[in-house]
Amino acid sequence: MDSKPTGRTVELLLNSAFGDPMTTARYEGLCAGDPNIEVTRVAVCYAPTVEHLRRAVAEQRNLFISREHPFFLHGGPNYSYETEGLETAIKDDPVVVAKRDFILAHNLMVYRFGAAWDQFRPQAQSSALARAMGLNPTIRPASDRSRAVVCDLSRETTLLALAQSAVEQLKCTSPRTVGNFHTKVNRVAVIAGETDPKEALAKVLADPKIDGVIAGAGGVIDEVDGAISYFRDLIASGRRIALLAVGYGPSQEPGVREMAQWIHSVLPYLEVEWWPTSDSSWIPREMAGTG
Amino acid sequence: MNMESHVSRRRFIQWMSTALAVGTGLGKRSSAQGKITALEVVERIKAKLATEGVAWRPSHFDGFHLGDPDTALTGIATTFQPGLDVLQRAAAKQKNLVICHESTFWDGFDPIQVMADDPVHKAKIQFARENRMVVWRIHDHWHRVKPDPIFMGLARKLEWTPYYDLTSWPGHYSIPEMSLEEVARHIQTKMNTLNVVVVGDRNLRVRTIGDCSHILSTVLPALHNYDVALVGETPQQDSFEYVRDAVALGEKKGLVMISHEGLEEWGMEDFAGWLKPIVPELPVEWVPTGDPFEVPLARG
What we know:
The complex is a heterodimer.
Chain A: H1 7-17, E1 29-32, E2 42-45, H2 50-58, E3 63-66, H3 80-83, H4 86-90, H5 94-105, E4 109-112, H6 115-120, H7 124-132, E5 149-158, H8 159-170, E6 176-178, E7 184-194, H9 198-204, E8 212-217, H10 225-236, E9 242-245, H11 248-266, E10 272-274, E11 281-282
Parallel strand pairs in A: 2-3, 2-10, 3-4, 7-8, 8-9
Antiparallel strand pairs in A: 1-4, 5-7, 6-9
Helix pairs in contact in A: 7-11, 9-10
Chain B: H1 9-24, H2 38-51, E1 63-66, E2 76-79, H3 84-92, E3 97-100, H4 119-130, E4 134-137, H5 140-144, H6 149-157, E5 164-165, E6 172-179, H7 180-191, E7 197-199, E8 205-211, H8 216-225, E9 228-232, H9 236-248, E10 254-258, H10 260-275, E11 284-286, E12 293-294
Parallel strand pairs in B: 2-3, 2-11, 3-4, 8-9, 9-10
Antiparallel strand pairs in B: 1-4, 5-6, 6-8, 7-10
Helix pairs in contact in B: 6-10
């Protein structure tokens, strides 16, 4: 390519790379900056944070391709409650205004590429998470649209050991568990992001040999929080199973890294780099008065 | 947390189907045989609420979700969410009416037909049937009592009631100044759980903490007005990222996330005390739902 593509051109190229038309999704595509600017270099990240934006200016890199939205509009079909009222609430929010102004002032662009990636590779994020934790996901038929992947462990371990592995491999800082974390596990379902809604989760866990789940987060109320409540009831019904939540962002990072590799394969003439987004959360390790 | 404004027509129809299924799907009605029934207890609750200025109104959530309302009662358990383990513990204590704040079948609207063939769903219904249990939910109407008992319960549990102002919007605590880490440790200790996840500078000086429910649109008012937002299991992909960016931009803010149970459990503990005077013939006991999350590497 003789001239550098614009942000809009990159969007068209990526959307056509899968060969099928992408279903329109809320809050996707080029969502910040002027799409007609020529792309210098590309940073691929989970979240286009203020820290990343500043670094991009310093390194003269002007296109972000991110999994999350720069202005916190996650959206998605299962998240109507989460997104209710948010567009109005953030309209004049000082953080959003500051980010938007910074992006415009420095000729940056942010292209959100989450729903499309999930649509055409529904298990990519979960498979990458599994591999990052040293697990080997079972290949599933292309017709299977579930986000979850299933991994048979080479040797029995405990959920606690998997939590320790997550801390080391994913650099997650707030792993949490549901159920007895000493539960011995041989077959785990891995779900990047929030656990599936209860119907989808129940379908995955219909395999009675699954004795562990690794997910990003438990989620919020209704469909997704319902998954954690369902999981507790599953345990109360006698199933020996436990769940590890490694954190939403840390669960998505391995998939974002693989997405960056794929983007580079589609746009080989552009410099594309994966920028990890650190886990921002922490948990005090000992309660007051117990240390 | 109150979600009335988020109800869609589709979900309402779904909920109506659920209500009908609960009313007709559990066999023939039992005879009360002179003992007080679940329905009679509910009528007393409605009457007491009315004396406190809360008239009973149609609700998408509040009502019978499991069992026969005419069941004769042996005791009453109050809880946050009627999980199967809660039903098991209530049954062991001879409490066959469970009064809860949140859903029975893993969704705010309890559309039981969605999971009708699920083995866990069946096990839960079977357990309730075998133990002649009834589940009745009070969500919206309990929130309507002034001051909101759910938030007052949280303030009591945190031992911050003297610092709490529910007349502001959002409600907030004005606490003796401490660091964000000390705030988190205080909450851990008072709630007896390590499951307190924080975003922000550990050394942030905190004097005010704002209420919110679960989603970023409710977190923002707390963050705009106070030092810290105290939230119940929020989506990390937006709330955590917002606070990260706010801090990066120089805002002196923090987010403290506890479980949904940790936020609202205590108001249902107080419901037991509220209920006892109007059902003197029955034992009433709070059965905790408990925090679903543990922190496995606390001392690792």
